[in-house]
Fold each of these.
Amino acid sequence: MYREYINWFWSSVYRHYGGAGRRQPAEPTSRHRCSNVHVYGPTATTGVAERAPVEIEKEVTAVKCKDIDFKIDQNSKEHHTDQYEATKTWLGVNAEPQKPWFIVRRGQDFVIDLCMDGKFDKDNHDVKLTFEFGANPKPGEETLVSFKVSAKDKPKAWGAEILSVTGNDQSTVSVSVATPPNCKVGKWTLNVDTIVKKKDGTVEVLRYAHPNKVYILFNPWCEDDQVYMPEKDHREEYVLAETGRIYTGSKKKIRFRPWNFGQFEDFVLDCCLSLLDNCGLAPSARGNPVQIVRKISAIVNAPDDNGVLVGNWSGNYEGGTRPTKWAGSVAILLEYCKTKKPVQFGQCWVFSGVVTTVCRCLGIPCRSVTNFSSAHDTDGNITLSAYMDAEGEYIDSWCSDSLWNFHVWNDVWMCRPKLPPGHDGWQAIDATPQELSDGVFCAGPCSLNAIKAGQVYLPYDGPFIFAEVNGDKVIYQQQVDTSWAVQKIYKELVGYKVCTKKVLSPDMEDITPLYKFSEGTDEERAALKVAVSHTNVYSGLNIDYHGHLENNENQDITFLMYERDSIVVGEDFDIDLIVSNQSSEQRTLNVSLGATVVYYTGVYKKNVATDNFHIVLAPGEKEKKVSITVSPADYLDHLADQTQMKARCKVRVEETNQIFVEEDDFDLTVPDLEFEYVGGDKNDLHVGQPFQLKFGFTNPLPKPLTQCMFIVEGPGLQKAMEYKIRDVPPGEKAEQTVTLTPKTPGEKNIIISFDCQEPCDVNGIDSVYIEE
């Protein structure tokens, strides 16, 4: 009986596990591995039971992800995001410590480790990653993306593959994740699902929601990204450079303002992403750089969307900060993020500096651009129109257009797939609130190639930007019979020079040829005609002037107004006019010379000097000089922030009624800052080792400088700090010594701005190299 029972038992076991008369273990299925169990059975020779290994199916144990190692150091270096201070322990807007952020760029793989709470078996366990974007993620908008991790094929868009399973308990799963090059830019949440199939056919899913966000940015290093920039040195300048130079002054005396963009400083990325969250751009559009930069040009100004900066050109800055005091964008963004209110105040270079910060922070190549003699066309007819009465006096109420001594905006780099071929590359945007576009204060992006060709019908805001760089200034004068005639056409006045900082150099680069053909060439005139033909505004005078000639009848007196080169604020200067009689008859001239303090926007502030002359020129008399002297007592108390002035001249010839009106814009120069490294060698500076820097300048004014302050900042060296100093008497030195401690190695720039109640707009920059 015993032997029969044993034989029956083993035959049942073999039949159940596929033995078919053979002693062998059951083959485990691909998803349900059996555990080895040992039972007793007889030997062939003795018939006595012995131990024999037999596999019996056992339930697969589910595992759950308990944490994610984002390998921040490794991924940050590979994605060119290691300069973001937020990838280390950093301080928020209220100086509260924050954990490192995981910041990567789209279209480029990154590696993460999934830390499981048990042994991971890639044959029996599946992993699914779910990325969510925005408040209401949807698969149809690609703001909700879910996919299984594959062990084989690497996807071309969203997807992932298992690289390895490691650890003593096989619980660390290394995964390579791919994102598409058109991925939405901003904060994503990441959920990890581990999936196991049970014996009864049901599926068990265990979800881990990681508490921290995944930050995905634009990728100028990725060939498939719309903002791809092929040149390495251009990426270093237009994406990675933390400081730069913004050009101001006048066309004859161009100077620069050093600027700390600070796009990698701790809280800046958080602030920039908050701007995108609050600008009204749908989450589904957050992968499109064209729509994003258009929104940036709107949200950086305050008038219609509670944006970052309030513009103020009045000269009265009570309740806010004088625009010339700012030395960078970081302090502005910090104040905006802390208060949730627009910051007071900014002017064009400040708006441009903040735009550069926001764009570079998000990964969009960007530069600040300055246009000297920049037209502000208010009526959209692509000309700068001015009107004079019969006596040669401007009719101010008719002159809504203006000519700014300079205006600063931005270029951003991207493809424009919806435009005709040939319009990729640099695009102009402008955050200074000047004119409405689609009901809000914004401008661009507009292709530079379109601007150059006069293709103002291509989006966005082509007529306005074209007029800034290539419109003609036309002066219309009322005649004695009350008719109107073109008194003068200035074809080369507007867009005198467009410039930006040169790539990886402190020098200025002239980029005028990117915006316009050479003045007076057939190509330039043709572009103007194309632009005018596509405007929606009709004005008989302004459209028809292209066929008019200036009225040259009775023009027998020639005039030459001397241009001033370099005048130091606090000095006297002369306004000179040279007149010559080309006729064989006597001529009588009524001459008016004057000096006016102006804002850099061309708006008159104060007429500070005027003198009238009655001049008689003999037949053929040449080069008679008429001049006035303007003293500091005349202008000092009236200067605006930019210390800019305008020399004016008006002449009427009694015998012929010839009219000559001329203006010359210039700015008064201020001293440069002097730098001295105290008690050490500028060429021997190291991370973590403090050094002292002394800087200053001599007061050039004949009166004291009051309420004086230096503002010092520099990425990797110094957060923006203010240093108040004593009042500075005439001829004495305003100076300060500061201690700086380098945080990171490499070339660093120290940016300094000086502020006081008097017109003395001094600033400076010095570079140092920090060793490890």
Amino acid sequence: MAELRKFYNQYYYAKNMSLVVIGAYTLDELQEHVVDYFSHVPGKPREKSPLTMQHISGTDTSSVWNETHHSPIADVFGMPFDFSSSCIYRTVPVKERHTLSIAWQVMPLQSHWKSKPCDYISHLLGHEAAGSLLSALKTKSWVTGCYAGVGSGGHEDASTHALFSISFSLSEEGVSHWAEIISLLYSYIGMLRHYCVEGFPGWIYEELRAIHEVSHKFEDEKSPEEFVEHLAEAAAPWYNLPPDRLLDGNSLLFEFDANAVKNLLENYLTPGNSRVDLMSSVFGRAHDYEENHGDDASKLPKTDGMHLKNELFDSGGPPMTEPMFGTKFWCHEIPSAVVQEWSNAAVAHLPPDSSMLSLPPVNPFIPVDFELKALPADDAHHPLVNCSLKLCISVGKKKAWFPATVTKFNGLKNQVLLSYEDEDEKWHLVDSILQEHDSFEPDYESTFDNKSIKFRIVAMPEVGEGAVLKYGDDSDFHVESGTHFPPIPPPIPESRLPQLVSNTQLLKLWHLQDRKFKRPIAELRLKLVCAGINRSPLEGACADLFVTLCSDATTEVSYLASVCEIGSSISATGFGFGLRFNGFDHKLLDLAKVLLNVILSFRSDELPPEVKPGRFDACLEVLKRKYSNAGMKASKLCSEIRLRCIRPTIWSSSAKADALVGITPSKFMEVISALLKKVSVEGLYHGNVGPAEAEVAISLITEALLSAPGSTGLPKKKHPSQFVIKMPRNQTHPIISVPTKDLTDSNTAVEVYFQVGPDDVRKRTLIDLIAHVLDEPFYDQLRTKEQFGYDVSCGSRWTYGVMGMCFCVVTSCKSANESTERIERFLEEFRKELEDMKDETFMEHVNGLAKNKLQMFNSLEEECGNLWSEITEGRYQWDSERQEVVLLKSITKQELIAAYDDWLLPQCNGTKNYRQSLVVKVIGSGDGPSSEDRPVFDAEHFGSEIDRHITGFHKSAGQTTWGKIF
């Protein structure tokens, strides 16, 4: 305690801190609160310390900020880590994986905030385009991915030092070539040292500067909590940021410091100042070293890859144990000849052409057009649109104030459309000519209809918010406090919903121009619908391999785009494949065109030329490793089993892995070309894109689809069905119980799932209300009070049109049976609490859920995701949240109790209830109660054992499904 008090006295003082306060008060009120709550913090340390932060004020008397701060810790102790021993640390992982990491300890970076030299170097070392280190290593089939730079953690970016690291994801072959990989890394560093002397091309810095600038300028708005946290960290003394750069000092590049880059490359990024870590399942996995084996590697079962031959590693002996996490590792001194080879490679030079190393190419995806696309004149932007107004209107001989919301503006007629509280709509002439850039605040007053109607602004929409309806009186406060039901905004005009701009068998494209966020970004989401995608595990596995190959083949292009904040992804889905392109709209379709052409080039008999030699086997290895690592966490395995029980067309990772045994490129192309032979596409183009841009997208997608002869699209009746098992009503739960896949995982996971039935708005709203009522008490009782598990939750589930509710417990101190019984007992006990619930409390839940459903989207990505889910599920209810809120207003407590009794209640009047339910238990291997009744599965047939249990459940349900819902 004495040492704690001493530490407090030495470092707890105002000059050593930063404080940021945000709140709904005036500046004077905020200042009063700050003085009240923080004036007791001492201005200087109570006790002196040789490590106290030094605050240095310059002698310049001008208004320019010239205060700096310096930490003396490095002066007293030097660098914190000893990297001079030239060792490699060999580590045993939990999962199937291979990674190589090289870390260098460099000087603290805070004083270099203007130039950010580590960002410049990491941009070059971590590049993935042609000529990059990654590209060269992928050609050798040694590496599948890399990352370079300084992390954001306190141990990586501190006032005393920084850790610059580069990590490679290796193939199994690459593990044997770790030293050669590092040698090529130092060759690249040698090339960078050469350019330190000759001079780097100026466009590299200019590209980086431009990218940093547009990324910062158009980044998504942070929540108040995130903003305060970000600003408080930026204002910390050791960052040395002047006040006028707190908002952008850590984001922008202000200058290029060639000397700082040279200093880092020549004096810090050297073999003698590095730490090398090699983690690989080639050395075994964590469960291989459990107590039945001890640390004697000779007793380990010989797994794939343990044939690795390396004299350095053969002399390692038994592994050491890291004391905190029990990780097994070896430490080997790297031979001096190897270190010397690396040093020679790092000498400033231009590498030979055979090395395939060069500086990055000029990036063609840097956006330069940030103009917002014009809206239709009859439904244009106007600063009043979506505002909540009060209008003074004559009623007989008197005048009264009525609330209304502005929903549209017709620029041709200078009229606004108002939606009144009773949902009546009326057009009004705007008397004043307001430009969109005109700014005003609540309480602004003006007139409509030749000054016959006076209006006052009550509330204005926030960025991302739609129509606002408020009253400008105490009722607004009651809504915020949850005592009043929130006002329901008017329906979204039809023109503001996604519009079907292409509707053919080949392409169905929805378009929506953004009006809320007003940023030069867009989202293009596509689903490629393929017949037979769910036919067998082979089709599922080939679909996954196709995704891996496409991602790998397009890395060099997609990386260039990602540097410019234009992202892309491809995934295998239940209907075929999902594609997403997002970011700045200017170059978005350029990227989409390149990737679509590569993806659709697989409609032939042979691998397309974009798949380089050796990449098929490398991607196949990556996918097999992914399958091997699937379901390693108890909670994830539990959710996966529950989902597979209710969706019979999902194939397990083990079944797909078995299907890939002996797969050849020709067999793969036979399967994948058959899947892609007839494809239909449905998409959503959303954001800063008008009708003209939508037409360009239609042409681009159609042209790509028609590039193969006979491309006519897939008839609707041949689209893969997404059936969901119809659970029979039982008095007892069907139970599936399996052990954890990871033998070292002591956690036990339990999910109790209740199926409700096909989607309809009333049931959907009732389920959400039940979840809202149960969420806090369920967590409070089982997690907080009874300490049942570290992860306790409940919530609604929506699976391709079938609704349900799930209760989850992850625990290391209770058995699976105890967890299941406790969930059942909670549901039974809570029935009385529902019955006794006061009407005021019930309405607080109703009001709270309504507020949640009416909350605005925080980003274009979030809104697009919501719309896209309606498309992928086939429901197309664009305003479903508003529909639910309208219905929610009429739901009674008795209706809620009746639904609870029917769907969840274990027994009624002493008789067990018939419910559609399922219990999944994944039982851990701990020493305590959590491992009770743990089943014993043959490790080699773990996946097939789970498949057998799931198939048994399907048979017990009679293989009955809910049929086609949408």
